[in-house]
Design a protein that fits this description.
Layout (H helix, E strand, L loop, with lengths): L1 H39 L7 E9 L9 H16 L2 H11 L3 H4 L3 E6 L4 E8 L2 H22 L11 E2 L21 E6 L7 E9 L5 E6 L9 E8 L5 E10 L2 E4 L3 E3 L4 E7 L8 E7 L3 E13 L17 E12 L4 H33 L1
Antiparallel strand pairs: 1-3, 1-15, 2-3, 4-14, 5-6, 6-14, 7-13, 8-12, 8-14, 9-10, 9-11, 9-13
Length: 366
């Protein structure tokens, strides 16, 4: 009788502790399942979306294989969106580091409809919109330049300022601090009565005046920019810069000028094919200064400006819709965690049921 009573007591003790163990097992299984679900579908880091639309113009009248050509043009635009200079432009426009901008750009749209959509995502709608807009502009610039067409800017390569500022100081410089003022003036120019007068009032160097020229410039070919400058009062430390991007630019020698017209130059060899480039007359010293510029020009060493042969119509790709916010990605992390937790509970319950059945069989055999 005593051994039987002892076995009954042990069995009762195990039966009393079983619910607690089972409950703990269910909780742990649910937690593990939820964690796995959250890891499988994590919340997006940059959930705000923005889009800009580029239209692809077909040939009129259409060719026999026009649809295939439009699809090829769409693919070309998608490849351009991944080009280093395009990603760099998107990063610069949004203020994000290059490593963060690249994976957050992708293409959409319909090749058959001639619509190419630049999609960007970022931490908020403002940054996403800026990134999409900059990426679209850089994509258009790349497509135009690579087909031998000029990008955005002035068609001039010579500036005498006899009929105004001729495009200087328009838009935003990619190299300079903005001047207090820059514009055409009348006076004793290097030639004629027109000149460009600029005033800077900064405590650091880097202010100046600029113009963007719209020319399809070829990589590996040297280009020479020159300008005549002077300081109507006092002295000014000036230099000429010429380039298309912060990593593809040349700076000329700094010259201290006074009231006498002085020639400054810079020689630039583009690293990449570009559709436009910026010429700067830059103050390379601290302090307030006013200076004049005249007879600015860009040439190739042989005299004639070397440009890329035109391979396509200039307006094949156009901006059809400016960048705008396009909503927000919805996180599926909570749903995935709930599903994972439910799966964990089911697995734990099945395991506990199998264990209980095995114990009953074992007791029955005893």
């Amino acid at each position: 009788m005593i051994p039987a009573t002892r076995r009954l007591r042990e069995r009762a003790a195990r039966a009393t502790g079983a619910p607690a163990v089972a409950g703990a097992a269910l909780v742990v299984a649910a937690a593990v399942g939820a964690s796995v679900g959250a890891l499988v579908r994590p919340a997006p880091v940059d959930s705000y979306l923005a889009e800009a639309v580029i239209s692809i113009r077909p040939d009129v009248p259409p060719a026999a294989d026009e649809l295939a050509r439009q699809r090829a043009r769409w693919i070309r635009a998608a490849e351009a969106l991944r080009a280093p200079q395009v990603v760099l432009g998107a990063a610069a426009g949004s203020g994000l580091p290059l490593r963060r901008a690249k994976p957050r750009l992708n293409a959409g749209g319909s090749p058959d409809a001639g619509l190419f959509i630049v999609r960007a995502r970022a931490v908020n709608s403002t940054v996403a919109t800026a990134m999409a807009g900059s990426a679209a502009a850089s994509t258009l610039e790349f497509l135009r330049a690579s087909s031998g067409n000029p990008g955005f800017g002035s068609p001039r390569t010579r500036f005498d300022f006899e009929n105004g500022a001729q495009g200087w100081g328009v838009g935003r410089s990619i190299f300079l601090l903005p001047p207090t003022s820059t514009g055409a003036a009348r006076g004793r120019g290097r030639r004629g009565r027109g000149l460009l007068r600029t005033t800077c009032r900064y405590t650091q160097p880097g202010c100046g005046t600029w113009v963007t020229i719209a020319k399809a410039l070829s990589p590996g070919h040297p280009y020479l920019a020159q300008a005549w400058v002077r300081a109507p009062r006092g002295r000014a430390a000036l230099r000429l810069a010429f380039g298309a991007a912060p990593e593809d630019v040349a700076d000329g020698r700094t010259v201290l000028v006074s009231r006498r017209w002085t020639r400054i130059t810079v020689r630039w060899v583009p690293q990449l094919q570009v559709g436009s480039a910026e010429i700067d007359v830059q103050v390379n010293a601290a302090g307030a200064v006013t200076f004049d510029a005249d007879q600015v020009s860009v040439t190739s060493p042989g005299g004639k400006l070397v440009q890329i042969p035109r391979l396509d119509i200039p307006d094949r790709y156009r901006l059809a819709a400016r960048a705008q916010a396009a909503g927000q990605l919805h996180s599926k992390t909570v749903t995935a965690a709930l599903v994972g937790g439910a799966i964990g509970l089911l697995a734990a319950a099945a395991g506990l049921a199998a264990g209980a059945l095995a114990r009953r069989r074992h007791h029955a055999e005893q």
